[in-house]
Amino acid sequence: MKKNLFVFIFLIAPFLLIAQQKSNETPTYKNKKASIQDRIDDLIKRMTIEEKAGQLNQLNGGTFTGPAANDTGQKAKMQMVRDGKVGSFLNVIGATETRAVQKIAIQESRLGIPILFAFDIIHGYKTIFPIPLAEACSWDIPQIEKNSSVAAKEAAAAGLHWTFAPMCDISNDPRWGRVMEGAGEDPFYGSVVAAARVKGLQGNLNDDAHILSTVKHYAAYGAVEAGREYNEVDISRVALWNKYLPPYKAAVDAGAATVMNSFNVFEGVPASGNKYLVTDVLLNKWKFKGFVVSDWSSFSEMINHGYAANGKDAAYKAISAGSMMDMESKVVIENLPQLVKEGKINVQQVDDAVKRILFYKFKLGLFDEPYKFSDEKREAATELSKENKAEARKAAAGSIVLLKNDNQVLPINSSAKKIALIGHYAKSKEDMFDFWIGYWTGKPAVDDAVTIYDGLKNKYGNAVEYSEGYNADATTSDALINTAVQSASTADVVLVNIGISGKMAGEDRALAYPEIPEAQIQLLKALQKTGKPIVALVSSGRPLVLTKIQPLVSSIVQCWILGTETGNAVADVLSGDYNPSAKTVMSFPYAIGQIPVYYNHFNTSRPLPTDKDGNWFSRYRDIPNAPLYPFGFGLSYTTYSYSNMQISNPIMERTDKLTVTVTVTNTGKIDGEEIAQLYIRDITASIIRPVKELKGFRKIKLKAGESKEISFVLSGKDLSFYDGTGQMHLEPGAFKVFVGGDSEHVLGKDFVVQ
Ligand code: NOJ
C-alpha cells in the first residue's frame, strides 16, 4: 500500500500535474503573442481530418436569426458549424447576422475556429458604383482603386471578410452577360485594373476596413463559346498565356488572397480539376500563397462535364489538382476524410490547403477579435454615407462614354427651356441595376438610387418633361409614341433613354441579340421627324450594336449601368458640369455577326487594305471589318490633337529602354481630360502577334488650348510575348509603336530591336 502511495506521489502525480497545467494553459493557437505560423502549426495538430475537411467547406448561408432560426435546413447548417464542418459561409450579410453565426462557431465548436463570411461585392456593397466594365472605361486607376476600397469599407462594417471580385476575365463577346464584370478586351489594361481592384479591396489587410479579394474566374472563362454562360472553352496555350492569363497574374502579384476556379474546361479538363492551371501554373509557377476556392458547385459539376464519375471522384479530382475550398457542392466535406483514410489523398496536401485558409483567418485577426467586422454602429455610419455617394457620383460621371455628338448638341445649352426626357428606364429603379447588387438577399440598395429622371430634375427642375415612350417589356404603342413625339416637338433638346434593362446584365444573362430593341428604334424614327436634336442615352451592361440608331440621333451617350448616383452623374455630363473623358474598353460591334470583334486581332494571311476594296481578302461582304466604335474610343466636349511623335532610339538593344514622346493639345474651347494610348506591333515573330497591343496609357488634364508633351518608356518586357509553355520571349526584328486617342487613330514610328 505504502509502495503504491509512493509510486503515485513521486512518479504519477507530477505527470498528472503537468498534464493538468498544460490543459489549463492557453493553447498556442489562441495566444495572441505567438506568431501566425506557430499558431497555425499548433492548431493543425489539434484538428481531426473531419475538422480539416470542414475548413475546406463553404456553404451558402442566408438568414439564421428571427423566424429563419427554426428552419430545418438552417438548423442543420448551424449544427455543422458546431461540429466544425463549415469553414466559410457565403451570403450571410449584415453585422447582426454575421455576429450571431460567428458566436456559434467561436463558443460552441470544439476548437472555436472563426468563420469567414463571403459575399459577391461586384460594384459596391450598399453604395453601388458603376459596373466594372463601365468603371474601367474611365482609365482612372486611382479612382478605380478608391471605388473598391469604399466597397470594402462598407462590407467590412457589415461583418464581411471576403468578396468574390475582381473578375479578371478578358472577353471579346458582348453576348456574354458577364462582360459587365470585367475590364474589357485588353490583357495589358485588364492587368492594371485588376491590380488596382485588389489593392482597393485588400489594402494591407491589417485593419477593419478591408477584405479579402478573389481573382476569378480562373481561367479563361471569358472565352466561353458563343458567349453562352457555363459553356465550354477551347483555346490554345498561346492564347491562354498571352491573352487570358495576364490579368489573373497581375491580381495574384498584387497580393490577392484567393483565386476562384472557373466553370469552363481548359484542354478538355474542367478548371476545378485542372492540374495544369491550378498546380503547375498558379501554385508552382506563380507561387500563389493564398487559397483556391471553387465556383458555386464547380467541383460537383465536373460530373456533368463528364470528367468525374460521382461526388467522391469529383472531390478527389479537385483536391488532387490543387483546388482547395468547395463552394456549396459539399463533395469535399462528404468525401475527403474517407479519401485520406484510403490513402488516395495525402494528408499533407489537405494540411497545406487548410493552413492557407487559417492564415487569412489569423491575418484578419478573427481568432483574437472574431466580431471585429460585425459592427452595427460602423455599419450604419458607413453604408450609403454622403462621402461614399460623392465617390460613386464622381466614378459614374467618369465612366460615361460619349460616342457621338454632332453639331455639339451636348452639353445642353444653358438657355434650354424645355427638355423632353423619354424612356421607361429613365424612371425605373428596377431596371437601373443588374443582378450583382445582392438581389438574392432580399436587401438590395435600390431605394436610394437616383434615376436619370431624378438626376435631371435635380439639375433642371421643371424644364424636364417626361414621357414613357416604351413599356417595361421594351414594347411600344402608337399612344406611347404619340405622347413622346408631342413632348419632343416643343422641346429644345430630346433625351431618349434606350438600351436594355439592367436586369439583363451579369451571370446567366447571355443574349443572342445584344442590340437596341426594335420598339425603341421605331420610337427614335418617329422622334427624328420632329427635327429636334435627339440624344440617345444608352443604358446597358455591355456594348450593344448601335448601328441602326446611329443615323437617327445627333448624340449617343453610353451610360452603361452606373449605380446609386446614375441620374446625378448623367446630369453632370449632359449639362457639361463634367466634361466626359471615358473611352470604351470593349469594341462596339457593327453587327452581331461580327462578334467577336476586338482591336488586338491578328493580321491574317489576307488582310483587307484600308485604302481599297477588293476580292479575296479576309472580309465581310455585307459589313465593314471594323467595329462601329473601336477599343479606346470616346469623345469629349473639346477636341485633342497629337503631334511631334519622337522615339529615343530607332535601333535598340534588347536591354535598352525606348522612350516615346508626343505632344497632346486641347484644340477646343473647354478644359478636359484626354486618355493617350500607346500601342506596339511586333511585325514578325516565331508566333504571330496582334496588329496592335496596348502597352501604356496616360490620363492627362489639358486646359482649353493647352499642349503637353507626354512620354512613355518601353522596356524589353513590353515587347515580349509568351510561348505556349509560359516562357517569355523578346525576339529581335522590326516593331512599330503608335500613340493616339484610340486604337484606330494613331501616329506611328518604326523601330528595330537587335
Ligand atoms: C457563381 C459565379 O460564377 C461567381 O462569380 C460567384 O462569385 C459565385 N456564383 C458566388 O455567388
Primary descriptors:
single chain; 754 residues; alpha/beta; Rossmann fold; Immunoglobulin-like; six-stranded mixed sheet; 17% strand; globular; binds 1-deoxynojirimycin
> Largest sheet, order of strands side by side?
11-16-15-14-12-13
CATH topology of the domain at 389-594, what is it called? Rossmann fold
Radius of gyration: 29 Å
Give the second-level CATH assignment, the architecture of the domain at 389-594: 3-Layer(aba) Sandwich
Q: Would you identify the CATH H-level superfamily of the domain at 389-594?
A: Glycoside hydrolase family 3 C-terminal domain
Helix and strand content put the structural class at: alpha/beta
Q: Termini separation (Å)?
A: 95 Å
Bound molecules: 1-deoxynojirimycin
* Percent range of helical residues: 25-40%
Largest sheet: 6 strands, mixed
Can you tell me the CATH class of the domain at 389-594? Answer: Alpha Beta
As a percent range, the share of strand residues is 15-25%
> Overall pLDDT, averaged?
96
**Principal-axis shape:** globular
Supply the number of helical segments.
Answer: 21
Number of strands: 26
Which residues sit in consecutive blocks of at least 5 with pLDDT less than 50? none
